[in-house]
Amino acid sequence: MRNPAVPFALLISVTGASLALALWHPFSPSAPAPPAGERPTGDAGRGAVVFAESCAGCHGADADGGIGPALRGSGQTAADVAAVVATGRGTMPAGLVTGRDAADVAAYVATLSE
Known about the structure:
The protein is mainly alpha-helical. It has helices at residues 5-24, 44-54, 56-59, 78-87, 99-113.
């Protein structure tokens, strides 16, 4: 006769390991945050295109939220957004967009945040 505790223990172990890896983010790139007080400059028009390609899947096409939080009306500055893009937050990994794309997305989201 099989012990019913064995499959249950296996299920709990696999679930726990999966959760630990999901929370740990071992494969997330780590990008440095912009220096304090330095306001990133970017092109909000170009940022709208980058947002649609890289961010809208989680934050919604109109930035009204979805899997990720709503960004429209959030009151975030371009510097706030740039820091989150660089370092990540919650389930959003760091560095999804970098360089000019990151500055442009930050400028675009700042226009929505007002």
